[in-house]
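cron nightly-structures :: item 1 of 1
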Amino acid sequence: MSNKKSIMSEKLKEEIAKELGVYETVKKDNGWGNVSSKTCGNIVSKAIEIANRNVE
C-alpha cells in the first residue's frame, strides 16, 4: 500500500467519470484499470477546468 497522497479525490474522479459516462466501467471493474488513457486524460482536463473555475 502506497503512502502517496492523491491530488484528486476519489469523489471528484467519480463525479467526473459519471459526467463523462464511464463510471459504470469503474464500478463494474472495481477500479480504473479498464478506463482508457484518453478518458483518464479527459478526466484530468475536466478537473483542471473545475479548479480554474474555482480560482476565478
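cron nightly-structures :: done
The first helix runs from residue 10 to 20.
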